[in-house]
Amino acid sequence: MTIEVRVPQLPESVADATLVAWHKKPGDSVLRDENLVDLETDKVVLEVPAPAAGVLKEIRLADGTTVTSGQVLAVIDEGATALPGASAPAIIAAASGAVTTAQEAAKDAPKTEGGGKLSPAAKRVVEENQVDPKSVAGSGRDGRVSKSDVVNYLSNKGAGLPAAGVPGAGLPGAAQAAPPPAGGPAPKPPTQFVPAPSARGARADQRVPMTRLRARIAERMVQAQSTQALLTSFNEVDLKAVNELRGRYKDQFEKQNGVKLGFMSFFTKACAEALKKFPSVNASVEGNDIVYHEYFDIGVAVSTERGLIVPVLRDADSLSFSDIEKSIANFAARARAGSITIEELTGGTFTITNGGVFGSLLSTPIVNSPQSAILGMHKIQDRPVVVDGQVVVRPMMYIALTYDHRIIDGREAVQFLVTVKQCLEDPARMVLGV
User: Fold this and answer.
1) Which of 181, 199, 290, 327 is deepest in the core (most CB within 10 A)?
2) What is the pLDDT of residue 105?
3) Is 405 one of the catalytic residues?
């Protein structure tokens, strides 16, 4: 009995997906619920499990195909057993019914001349000077013969290039070679210096299509810069008080909650307090309307191998420090494993991004549209500062707020940063709400 493997029902906000990679090939045995293929959406990668055990009879769609909900991906022969040593048939492409094999591709590949392929410029010089290309040693990758290789070959034979082969020869204003002295031999033209092949790196280009996630990130970033009036304000924070608090309670905190006490919980709580005081920073623009959100869903940017994603902490103002740290750790682990859900990436009224973990000292982050502001954290660095008239060394961090100047004035942006600074330099403010 044959069973069709179909694209699962995609979330409401996702129109289609891209078939990334098959983990099985036709003729392979499969187990029930074993992952057959990965589908990439704009935000997450979805796994398609086998609906039954048996043998993968055929694959209907090849890698890179755009698919929609319910589309047939493959066919499984339920209950069948794979024959040992049996060769798997070719993947069946949906559009043409066939896939170009490696042998066909090799057949169509261009042939090299004389053990080394000629560049267009080299081919022209070879034809003009009637040189046998087989006698020219190529210095390029895979023995590719360049124009300089042909020029050196001609020079070593004592033959100069004719005027037709010299760029600019005979043109008005072009530099002309000096005539040979009377009664003397003609001067030998200088040869072009070409580094040895061992001193030159591989000059290869690799064209790779954007993943759907990377394309979506690019689209959102360009959208934000083209539709919003973005401006960035800066401040710096003395993290001595936060460091002392973490040092005093980090062991007890980890023992009690099973997670380390990091900096993100402090910054999240500080931003929540500042958002309460300055509602426009937590707002967004829809047409000619300003939407003021009366809840505080703060997105935390997480870097993965596939790109940057922003899971959202719902009602961040009401979460405890331990809840924030546990949520962020869980988001990061599942984002890198590809198991985070689209619902967790949807929405958000404000975003925090931490370039400091990669060593960034200062940056201007881009707003996560349709939000209106984003806070950038940076590297903590010991710097001399003046405190109470004395120069002391403190752990300092630059913070940046990029905001949409259409609805957020400079005064509000600066005061928002000052509020974040005050909360972090005196964490008791977050407990007392002052």
Assistant:
1) 327
2) 40
3) yes
